[in-house]
Each structure stands twice: as structure tokens, then as C-alpha cells.
Amino acid sequence: MASQPRIAVLTCLTPHAWIAINALAEHFGQLDILNEERQGKWALIRSRARRQGVLTVIGQSAFALAQKIAIRSQGPRIAAIINDNKLNCEPNPGCRRHGIGSVDAMACRTALAMIKPDVVVVLGTRIIGKETLAAITVPVINSHAGWNPAYRGQAGGYWALVNGDQNHAGVTVHLVDAGVDTGGILYQERFHPTKADSYATYFYLQAGISRPLLVKAIEDAVGGRLSVQASSLVSRQYYIPTLWGYLWRGVTRDVW
User: Fold this and answer.
1) What is the structure's pLDDT at 1?
2) How far is residue 157's CA from residue 170's CA, in Å, rounded to a whole number?
3) Which residue in 19, 54, 149, 219 has the most C-beta neighbors within 10 A?
4) CA distance 68 to 74
């Protein structure tokens, strides 16, 4: 590659996001991180309640609390995944950080205009609105923890396993459009959890296998070689499970 591409990463920083960011920085050099603030808890609850109903959101909130405990109990397994796959979850001091508030804020569009990226990567933000998308004139690439279009939305790997659909338990690197994980598919790869894995560890496994896919997609974008894959799968969007639904599926389907 003649010169290092300018890469802007839209993200809400988490250990999973740093896994991807560190892999990209190692391959492409310094990145610009546009860090989105987490959406307020009550605003998020109200938004979900309007879409999914109050009872469902109560169950999802209970599940989220239970997962905080599960993550602590799965600490040794998470550490093993990080070690075995050489994942780097630590903040990278070599990356430039820009606080933007929200991907839909003027601050985000101003930062993008200043950076003039060759490609924009999306890692775990809220849905990007039309105004911000319209302001970006270069490829926008997302790493999604599910197999599109059958497992769009949240926790796609978990839902594929629940459905007994191991062939479509994986990750998708795709172009971003105005929909929810509906953009053109670039690359996909399966992940293979063990009996030691659960909801708390799936995302680490998925983050690990998505790294080379992201690198290839960015190289394609910069080189003008982007090619979209067709899919005959039925499109469906999933959400965070409720606590009672998660427990029932764990008992009846042995997927945790």
C-alpha cells in the first residue's frame, strides 16, 4: 500500500471495540476515533419501550443486570479467549480521539469533515441517521456480530445458536445504509463456541474473527475493489433477550 489510508472509526468504546481498533492500527497505522457517549439509560429504556413494549424492556433490563454477574463469573474463560486469540482489548494511546457526543451530532460531521477519511468504520454505535450518512462521501463499513441478513440487530450469534443454526452463527462485515444491518455484505465468517462459552463470551470470539475481515474490507475500499455478496436468506432483526426468555432457552436448548 503506497500510503497509509486515513481511517475514521465511529464507536462507543468497549473492550470489543478496542480489539478491532488495535488490529486496524497495527495494520494501517494511526486511526482517528470518534467516540460516541453512551445513550442515557432512561432515554434508551423509553425508546425501547415504545418499540417493543414495557414488559419486554423490563425483561431485557433484568437480563442486562444478570449479564454483569455472568461476565465476572466468566472472567477465566474471557481471559483464555483473549490469550489464545491474541486479542488486544487495551486502549491505544497512539490513536487520536475526538469526543462527538452522538454520531448524529454536528460535532461528528464536523470532525469527519476535518479528518477527510478515506474510509469510515463503525463499531457499536447507535443507528446512524440520514444526515450524518449523507455527509459521508466515502465507504462506511460496519462490523456486525451476526450473520446478515438472517440475524440483524443485537446478539446475532446468540440467536443463531438458539435457533440451532450453527452454519449462520458468525459475523458480517458490511456497508452501512439507513437500515439496521441492511447494507451490502462484504465478508462473513462463522465462529465456533465451546461448552465453556456463553452469551458473555460470544462477543469476544466474534470480535476476534472479525479482525481480518475488517482489514480486507478496508483494503478493498481504499483500492476501489469493494464487491457486495448476494444472499438468499430471509431477513430478520433480533433484540436483546429478556431474562426469562434467556433462562428458558438455556434450560430447554442448552444455549447460555
Assistant:
1) 47
2) 6
3) 19
4) 10
Question: How high does pLDDT run on average in the chain?
Answer: 95
Which alpha helices (DSSP H) does 150-197 contain, by range? 156-162
Give the residue ranges of the chain where pLDDT is below 70.
1-2
Residues 117-171 have pLDDT tens digits of 999 999 999 999 999 999 999 999 999 999 999 999 999 999 999 999 999 999 9
Which residues, at least 6 apart from 132, have a Cβ–Cβ distance to it below 8 Å? 103, 104, 108, 109
User: Which helix (H) or strand (E) covers residue 60, if one does?
Assistant: helix 54-73
Cα–Cα distance, 168 to 151 (Å, whole number): 8
Predicted pLDDT of residue 47: 76
Peptide bond into 149 cis (omega under 30): yes
**SS3 call for 15:** helix
Distances (CA, A) of 142 to 18, 93, 182, 183, 194: 14, 23, 11, 9, 26
Q: For 212-232, what is each residue's pLDDT tens digit?
A: 999 999 999 999 999 999 999
Q: What is the b/e burial string over 166-196, where b = at least 16 CB atoms within 10 angstroms of the residue's CB?
A: eebbbbbbbbbeeeebbbebbbbeebebeee
Rounded to 5°, the CA angle 60-41-64 comes to 30
d(CA 56, CA 97): 36
Report CA 51 to chain centroid distance, whole Å. Answer: 21
Q: What is the pTM of this model?
A: 0.93
